[in-house]
Amino acid sequence: MDNRLASLSSTTLLNGTPTPMALLSGTGEVIACSPAWEQRVGPPGLLLERVHEGDRGELSARMAAARAAAGSTSATARLVDARGKVTPMHWTLWRADDTALWAAVKPDREVWETQARILVDVFQTMDAVIWASDKAGILQVSDGNGLAHFGIKPGQIVGMSMRDLYGEGSQVLELCRRVLAGETIRTDTVADGVHWIVHYAPHRGDDGEVDGVQTFGINLADHVTLAAQAELLRTCIDSMPIIIWAFDKDGICMVAQGGALAQVDAVERNGVGKHMVELCGSSPDVREAFQRALSGEIAHTEQVRQDRIWRTRFVPQKDVLGEIIGVGAISEDVTQQRRVEQQLREQLRLTQQQQESIARLSSPIIEVWQDVLIVPLIGVVDADRAAMVMESLLAAVVERQAAFAVLDLTGLDAVDTTTAQHLIKITNGLTLLGCRAVVTGIRPPVAQTMVGLGFDLSQVCTLRSLKEALRWCMSEARRGSSEARFGSGAARLGPGAARRG
After folding, report:
1. What is the pTM of this model?
2. 171 and 255 inside one domain
């Protein structure tokens, strides 16, 4: 076959085949190609320049193998068009002569099928709608779970005219006219209470010309609800005297929100981009709390800044895998709270002092006679009051060198096991100091209770009334004085009597 016939045969073959096919030189340049190749791959030029850079090495090796092979060689490489669109393609290469190659290309069906299955599976779980129409406005595709919002089943309106569905002059038809002119449009639409984001894009045929409209719409009602909730939460936080922080691992602020930002000089840019020590303080306690949060603990700290007391709670922030990616913090101005607590402590201290004063007034220690003290007990004798009575009474006995202490129980409301034990302790304490204890005013119900409880007061002098107690103390005091004088006189008379004898 002469060169003219070979050239004629190649040209006839390329012009007549619907397959994207080309003749490649030994350097990989397209010498001649079919119209389908030019539409799919591009005009003549270096083939590898049209291939994704990650696949060039593999395709080049396949081209070299095809020159040495007797049959065809297959390869898979991604094609990149002039707009940057990447398409997986299947290449068939076979030897034309010693250096030239024939090449044919088609979309990698397996890759496309895998991608299609993934897209279909995802699409079927979404509240979305897709539809497509030709240039005349006749619906070719109508599918998606979102059609249920309009009372339409998938495929139900295929074949109908867009003009019949929406009416002449509608916004949808106007958008379709713009898309048929080559424009891509995104719209926000609210229909029947549902918020839709709809993408309109031109559909192009194999010749690259626009031959229809294709759309994809997704229901964003849930996203709108979340956005409204987030806005409500932000408004609430901005009205409260707190600050919500979010820091990365290096301590750089990512989020700063709250009504108390102005109090820490962080209003500018809301503190975002600043370091944690600049916003929360540079004290060792703050740094330690931040590091503890990074290690997975929850830490608290308080510090004084600009005459205000701030309490900050640091918590670890984790990603979906449980890895710590930063620290969240809540700062609260507790100055007023601390002032109130201090006031409450002062009030409690004053109340305790008043209670002690009242208790002393309800159990006064009265020196009614020389060496005689009287303690009237009124109300209820609990552990605290008994301890106070014992302390005060024993101190008074020592200070005044009292010989008698009268416990008047006339005003006691009741006597239980605890009260009786306290009385025994008081009388035992008086005995240890050499002071004689006298108990008066035991009423019949109290006496029955003490007997029923099995308390033995046989070692304690008990009298009916305070009057009898005073007489007894005076009598015991005179007797003690007489015995002291008699003993002294016998000592003086003893030697003389002995001499007279």
Report:
1. 0.37
2. no
pLDDT in tens, 392-413: 889 999 998 899 999 888 887 6
Domain match, 317 and 404 both: no
Find how far residue 155's CA is from the centre of its chain. 46
Rg (CA), the chain: 52
For residues 104 and 149, membership in a common domain is answered with no
Same domain, 249 and 324: yes
* Close Cβ partners of 197 (under 8 Å, ≥ 6 residues apart): 186, 187, 188, 189, 217, 218, 220
CATH code of the domain containing 185: 3.30.450.20
Per the domain annotation, does 372 fall within a domain? Answer: yes
Q: Which of 17, 79, 47, 40 is nearest to 208 (CA)?
A: 40
Adjacent-strand bridge partners of 437: 405
The pLDDT score that the predictor gives to residue 144 is 87
| 365 contacts 397 by C-beta, under 8 angstroms | no
Range of the domain at 61: 3-108
Domain count, the chain: 4
Give me the phi and psi of 324, to 5 degrees please.
-75, 125
Residue 87 carries which DSSP code? E
Q: Specify which residues 371 forms β-bridges with.
A: none
381: left (phi over 0), alpha (psi -120 to 50) or beta: beta
pLDDT, tens digit, for every residue of 199-241? 899 988 766 788 999 998 888 765 556 566 667 777 777 777 8
Beta bridge partners of 202: 213
Residues 6+ apart with CB under 8 A from 274: 252, 253, 266
* DSSP letters spanning 29-48: BEEEE-HHHHHHT-SSSBGG
Burial class (CB in 10 A: 0-12, 13-18, 19+), 252: middle
Judgement on whether residues 136 and 85 belong to the same structural domain of the protein:
no
